[in-house]
Amino acid sequence: MLFLIAAVILVGLVCVLDLVLTLGVIRRLREHTELLKAVENPSHDLTVGDAIDAFSIEDVEGRRLSADRLPAGTVVGFFSVGCQPCRAALPKFVDHAATMPGGRDQVVAVVAGADAADAESLVSALRPVARVVFGDYEGVLPTAFKIKGYPSVLMVDPLADGRLVVTDDNVDLSRAELVAAA
Fold first, then answer.
1. Residues 6+ apart with CB under 8 A from 98
2. Residues in CB range of 36: below 8 A, 6 or more apart
3. Which residues pair with 44 in a beta bridge?
4. Three-state SS for 112?
5. Which of 40, 45, 51, 79 is most buried per CB count within 10 Å?
6. What CA dihedral angle connects 69, 133, 171 and 102, to 10 degrees?
7. In whole angstroms, what is the distance from residue 74 CA to residue 42 CA?
8. Cβ(65)–Cβ(58) below 8 Å
């Protein structure tokens, strides 16, 4: 009888272990599905080497921001009001921007939305580490960068002829050394 009790307990433990491993596999499959969606449906129509349309706009502090004045290796992040993935990416973007060698002049954050009051939390979180621009979804910067979805993070460099081109269309916010090495 003792042997049967031990066998039932052993089978129960194996079943619990199997359940835990299966749940872990399901979680990883969900993560991979999200990564594949991001690759299949990029949030912009630009690839490395594509030129950005010329633009000139004022940031929320009233300073002029234009394509011909962005320093090499500038990271441009696009966020939307009411976007859960944007809220999830925001802390990583802020941490990444804080490590930029050029400081806030080398980081541009675009907050898209219809109401400035709704955008205030995003703008206030981004303002210490980036030059922030607020506008609508079809505004100057989303149009210049051909943005289709949010969040989107790009790195740009000016060429010798003055054109601004994408040098990284999938900035990995978990690797702060990416910009420092560029």
1. 129
2. none
3. 147
4. strand
5. 79
6. 50
7. 20
8. yes
